[in-house]
Amino acid sequence: MSGHNKWSTIKRKKGALDAKRSKIFSRINKEITVAVKEGGPDPDGNPRLRLAIANAKGASMPKDNITRAINKGAEKDGSNYTEVTYEGYAPNAIAVYIECTTDNVQRTVSNIRAYFNKFGGNLGTNGSLSFLFDRKGVFTIPKGTINIDEFEMDVIDAGADDIQVEEDTITIITAMEDFGTMIKKLEEMNIEPENAELQRIPKETIKLDKESAKKTMRLIDFFEEDDDVSNVFHNLELTDEMMEELG
Fold it and tell me: Sheet harboring 82-90: ordered strands across?
């Protein structure tokens, strides 16, 4: 099952989309806070919190930061975040799906609409683009000394649809319904992912010329730099050459 996987063609190299460490930590802080408010501060009894903490460790987030985020989520008067999604089209019919965690929905939707308008795109109605994406579990694991053949057999049994083996990392793709099963399997194997998330992967990608692709990615950058935005997914196909140019 090793080999090409569509996810890797639409996400720039690790660290490029979330270039600023402060942005990564801000996103994880919000995820921990939401997880605590949803299921309590004990990670043993709160799978969502356990996953958020694992992602925090994978991003080298200091332990004190993690503890503060848990405590903040446990405060009765702490920030109340809402998870919202937005869908729309960038120029050249590129579909964009945006996930946000915000304490002010009016501010967030106003910003998202402004970004679309600035680049000649348009914000659509919720659900209008969902059919273009599949929801998949995506796990990024340090390769280390893992025996690839044995590892592949174990994770295939746990529901892996695809496995991408690169120089330093292994990426596992699962169906959304197998996401929890894979988390448990990796815990049993004492393997801690660098990152584990539900991603929206396009069923088909669209190729653009270099200049059009660059314009679209400038819009994507605006979304990703917004503090309320957690994830941005799109169906623009990016070649390795294009990813290098975009940084």
Answer: 122-123, 82-90, 94-102, 229-234
Tell me the CA end-to-end span of the chain in Å, nearest whole number.
Answer: 29
Task: Return the pLDDT at 41.
Answer: 93
Q: What is this structure's pTM?
A: 0.83
Burial of 234 (0-12, 13-18, 19+ CB in 10 A): buried
pLDDT at 4 over 50: no
Q: Does the domain formed by 133-202 have CATH 3.20.20.70?
A: no
What number does CATH give the domain 82-131+203-246? Answer: 3.30.70.980
CB-based contact 147:123 (threshold 8 Å): no
Distance from C-alpha of 230 to C-alpha of 225, rounded to nearest angstrom: 10
Cα–Cα dist 149/170, whole Å: 12
Q: Would you list the domain boundaries of the chain? A: 82-131+203-246, 133-202
Integer Cα distance of 64 and 54 in angstroms: 14
